[in-house]
């Protein structure tokens, strides 16, 4: 996507972060309360207060205006396509295998975010992925409803594509934050409180985003395997107009599954900084299928995986152009 838009926090640096941030805190013992006498007349349940979005700041309003201009300019140039590719974007098994290697075996950024990342072993989830959404206080109810539906539908689609369990759950290990400038820090703190081993202070980098960073995903490997994801956190600016928000949902959640890099040669694909495609394409679905193919193992290098990757790519394309 656009330069600076997608900031991946992946690889060995995150492993150290997750381990050093892990703190065991004993849960307080709750007192046992005596039951109250049952009233003669049932007490009606209190209705939940309606969700009312807080007014936005000038900074948030200006950012929203800027991002609307960005989306308008991209659409006017024929970018942010939603057709998934077509006759103008054919690809072969050789291209698919090459693109998978570039996207799955490299980091987009180094551990200090000061430059491009280097080669990396294959990374993906072993445990089922359980997603949930945290909205900032300023996100209006209509947007919460539409964005929540998009995340739920896309989570189902990711599970179907990969064959790996991906569901929505309040006991989440993959949290999607949709929040604005005024409430992102509170949403990050709420996410940290729900994710063992991840402190609010460790997420500070996700709170300080450049204006041209529309969304970001961080994946964590804090278990016994340094290349096996155990948690992930995506942050999507609520100020993004609808198509950019949906594009962020598609890219960040897919990259949080293990496709960590972008490649200028990947087409038709959302794993490309050119913004040509807004939504997951047929090509990208095949990349996700390859990522979770049982013939590949977490921790494999590109050299180790290449013969198997080429074989899988031939199988998925039938050996000819797609």
From TrEMBL:
Keywords: Signal. Pfam families: DUF2927. This is DUF2927 family protein. It comes from Sulfitobacter guttiformis. Residues 1-26 form the signal peptide.
């Amino acid at each position: 996507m656009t330069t600076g838009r997608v900031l991946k926090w992946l690889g060995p640096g995150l492993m150290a972060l997750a381990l050093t941030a892990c703190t065991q805190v004993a849960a307080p013992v709750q007192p046992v309360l005596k039951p109250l006498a049952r009233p003669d007349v049932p007490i009606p349940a209190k209705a939940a207060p309606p969700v009312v979005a807080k007014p936005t700041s000038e900074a948030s309003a200006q950012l929203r205006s800027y991002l609307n201009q960005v989306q308008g300019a991209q659409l006017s140039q024929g970018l942010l396509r939603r057709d998934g590719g077509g006759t103008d974007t054919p690809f072969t098994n050789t291209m698919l295998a090459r693109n998978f290697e570039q996207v799955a075996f490299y980091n987009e950024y180094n551990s200090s975010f000061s430059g491009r990342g280097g080669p990396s072993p294959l990374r993906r989830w072993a445990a089922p992925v359980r997603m949930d959404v945290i909205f900032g206080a300023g996100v209006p109810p209509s947007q919460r409803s539409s964005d929540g539906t998009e995340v739920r539908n896309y989570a189902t689609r990711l599970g179907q594509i990969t064959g790996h369990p991906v569901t929505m759950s309040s006991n989440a290990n993959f949290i999607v934050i949709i929040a604005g400038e005024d409430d992102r820090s509170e949403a990050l703190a709420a996410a940290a409180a729900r994710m063992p081993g991840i402190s609010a202070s460790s997420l500070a980098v996700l709170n300080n985003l450049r204006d041209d960073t529309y969304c970001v995903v961080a994946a964590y490997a804090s278990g016994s395997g340094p290349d096996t994801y155990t948690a992930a956190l995506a942050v999507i600016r609520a100020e993004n107009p609808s198509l950019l928000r949906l594009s962020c949902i598609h890219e960040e959640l897919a990259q949080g599954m293990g496709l960590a890099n972008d490649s200028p040669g990947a087409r038709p694909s959302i794993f490309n900084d050119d913004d040509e495609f807004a939504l997951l394409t047929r090509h990208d679905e095949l990349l996700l299928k390859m990522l979770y193919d049982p013939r590949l193992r977490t921790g494999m290098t590109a050299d180790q995986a290449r013969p198997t990757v080429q074989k899988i790519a031939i199988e998925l394309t039938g050996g000819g152009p797609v």
